[in-house]
Amino acid sequence: MSQSFVQEPVDLTNCDREPIHLLGAIQPIGFLIALSTDWYVSRASANIGEFFETTPDAIIGQPIASLFSGEAIHSLRNRLALLRGADAIERMFRCALVDDGRAFDVALHMSDGVIIIEGEPSTERNYGDATGTVRSMISRLDQAPDLKAFYNEGARQVRALTGFDRVMVYRFDEDLSGHVVAESVKSGIGSFLGLHYPATDIPKQARELYKRSLLRVITDIEAVPVPVVPQLNERKQPLDLSLSVLRSVSPIHIEYLRNMGVRASMSISIVVDGELWGLIACHHYSPRCPSFERRSVAELFAQMFAMRLESRVRQETVEYERRARNISDQLLGAVASDETLLKDPNWLSDILTHAIPADGVGVWLNGNYAFCGKTPDTSGFADIVRRLNTVATGKTFATDHIAGLVEGAERYQGRAAGLLSIPISRSPRDYVVLFREERLESVRWAGDPHKPVDYGPNGPRLSPRESFEEWKETVTGRSMPFTASERRVAETLRATLIEVVLRMTDEASSERAAASERQELLIAELNHRVRNILSLIRGLIRQSKPPEGTTLEEFVALVDGRIHALARAHNQITDDHWGPAPLKQLIDAELAAFLAAQKDRVEIKGDPVLLNPQAYSTIALVVHELVTNSAKYGSLSDSGRVEIEWLRDNSHALKIYWREKDGPPVKPPTRKGFGTTIIEHSVPYDLGGEAELHYDPEGFNAEFTIPATHIVEPNRFSPKEIEFEGTGPAPVVEQDDILKGKRVLLVEDSLIIALDAEDILYRLGAREAMTEGTVAGAIATIEATPPDVAILDINLGNSNSFPIADRLAQLGIPFMFATGYGEQARLPDNHRARMVAQKPYTRATMTKRLTELLSGREAETA
After folding, report:
1. Checking phi first, is residue 459 left (phi over 0); if not, alpha (psi -120 to 50) or beta?
2. Residue 695 · residue 667 · CB < 8 Å
3. What is the distance between the alpha carbons of residues 249 and 25, in angstroms, rounded to a whole number?
4. Residue 177: CB partners within 8 Å, gap ≥ 6?
5. Are 496 and 392 members of one domain?
6. What is the three-class DSSP state of 216?
7. pLDDT interval class at 453 (50, 70, 90)
8. pLDDT given for residue 861 in this prediction
9. pLDDT digit string, tens, across residues 525-557
10. Are residue 282 and residue 396 in the same domain, yes or no?
11. Three-class SS state of 603
């Protein structure tokens, strides 16, 4: 990565021979005081007079009590006692260091036995619940369905928190080069997403420091650094500012930022498993200084981001390796009974590539070879085996570039560019080798990665890059690399294969016996379930006696409908591994299957409820018979309608009501068919409930009571299954495109509410959602990138959005207000007729209001 993304944190002069220490200066946004262990001032920043009525000369050698109040010193001492570890830093916000009432944000740490106190004037008046903010940010991270969305959400959250023009998530690759994997950026300033940067852009010393000090900020590259005096102590040593939050910046990095046009930056380390995984890098094109408290919240969020990332990666790895162990067990059991399988490359390929994806497999046993899939030719394979005998004796070996290992490999790199070898004997002789074909890749570099090394005044690569133009390079001769998890799986497979090759022991027999026992158990369970299903279908067929005059085709359709009703119910309850399923989903499925035209004449009422699998299958047959009977003979056979309603009674049992209206006159049946038997007796017999049928002349009615033991509480619904608005249930709004291709301005001063609203806008088809939290920011966005439509929160902290509304009205841009104050919201006379949406934002309300707003706009245009 280019050094423009990060702060160059160390003085690299002779850094290989001397301890790392920082430039002896700080940024002018705050002050620094160094204390001896007896709390006497030993050093101070030259700008101390800007914050206190004193000079460095006046306080150096004096007790800190001559500068700070006793209460402040007491608080600092308590915080100092909390420091744990060599790199620990304690923070205090809105701390009164002196008695004049001014508040400072303070950082406190130890450096070589010296107490370092850094302070900045507090700029946050009432930040609020920082822990609640981080908790909400992390909650949104946890909802990301995959790593790509996880990275994007991380960048988006930090930008919303800090207000930088550009926030990127930057990941280091195994070769220490890296690339931008996610980005949240202000509209109109270009994108760095996907750009790669060579490893040499961040020196080793800088990487180590990023692991110690997690956050670095540059508020203005044009600011003049403030020296710490005296520059050297009595031992002629500079002050180690490695952990300083205000430390000055290398002029090399300043020049990088200047070349890019960046005026302020911030970087937060992402440390996973004790290693520097990457950075959250922030850029701003004018001076910017987020408050110390916001920076601390961003740092805490980055630490939680790293923990969640580590958890996700580890969970994926554990699941992957669990599947691989199962495959290893299968391999062990199979080869233990038939060693000749090791010589069958097709069988090995099928087994191994289920654990480790590959395009081909080669087997080398006692000088004999066999191939499957895409592999080198015979002589090429022999060359590879000879080379493996020298570089990978007794262990697995992987490379994504065979040509870098074996001479002449270029001739077959199109079909075999990378390999993973698994030794299957203790002597370096026999191998199973997995091959991967060449992957042509176009890599986008920030500048020429093959540019000759520059030699500047401080040594190689310490002259700042002047050009950041994109450089594209096509990489050939390489495959998709084998991951660390895949190499660990290969080690597991190696141990398994060696065990099989070297011995046929009781363990192999035990494995076969265990496998046989598991198979017998599975067969018995499968046999039990198949018998039950066949018995049920047999009963349906035997009991489904056709009425007189029924044709064979009609009888087949009758039985087929009942079996399909069971099949639909079975699909719904097995979607969640044989778990409860929603009653409304069952009813909708039956209506969709049989009443496509009449469905609008069925009214469904009832709170969300889940039925367990047994009850679900029973009710599926009952509803099927009710629907088909009504479609043939009842209200749905002509112009009538049906009401379906359910509710819970005092005993928590479920009452289901079926009411038919406005259909043909109803008469009790002269004979009871199997369908009537299902309706009348299934619930009492199968579920221990009750069923009442009423053949009223005005319409057939039925009432069913299902005991509470078959009902699952509504709070077990997942958010995807049900959405609520207000006090009652509301249907889930389907994906809409009312904002398709439109750029939307969202003015909202609450971070979490803004992010939720953005999600809704994108799900409604918005091309871009531009979020601002202030009047000035919103008007600047309007002037730079006019939106197609806007949503304005009326109350923005200590101001309101009416000036924004005035400007939008001048430009003829449609907009609506939003508020959480309900009817109490007051609009000025010139906007009194404007549309107002009530918070909280939901897909239903946003869809409705935006449809009204945009349709009204189209009508005006017409």
Report:
1. left
2. yes
3. 8
4. 1, 196, 197, 198, 199
5. yes
6. strand
7. very low
8. 42
9. 445 444 545 555 555 565 555 666 667 666 666
10. no
11. strand
Please indicate, yes or no, whether residues 156 and 268 belong to a single structural domain of this protein.
yes
Compute φ and ψ for 795, nearest 5 degrees.
-100, 120
Is 431 found in the same domain as 368? Answer: yes
pLDDT at 156 over 50: yes
Exposed/middle/buried for residue 776 (C-beta within 10 Å: 0-12, 13-18, 19+): exposed
Could you tell me if residue 693 is inside a domain? yes
Is residue 694 domain-shared with residue 652, that is, in the same domain? yes
Across the range 294-302, mean pLDDT stands at 91
- Asked if residue 795 belongs to a domain, the reply is yes
630 in a structural domain: yes
Both 699 and 580 in one domain: the answer is yes
CATH for 685: 3.30.565.10
Residue range 575-603, pLDDT digits in tens: 454 568 888 888 887 777 666 556 678 88
Q: Are residues 706 and 755 in the same domain?
A: no
Containing 373, the helix (H) or strand (E) segment is strand 368-373
Which residues lie below 8 Å from residue 235, measured CB to CB, with a gap of 6+?
A: none
320 in a domain, yes or no? no
Can you tell me whether residue 754 is helix, strand or coil?
helix
Structure tokens at 68: 């700070």
In which domain, by residue range, is 627 found? Answer: 544-729
> Is 832 strand, coil or helix?
coil
Q: In terms of domains, do 712 and 746 share one?
A: no
Contacts of 267 (CB under 8 A, 6+ apart): 5, 6, 7, 210, 215, 216, 279, 280, 281, 282
Number of domains within the chain: 4
Q: Could you give the CA distance from residue 233 to residue 42 in angstroms, rounded to a whole number?
A: 8
pTM for the model? 0.58
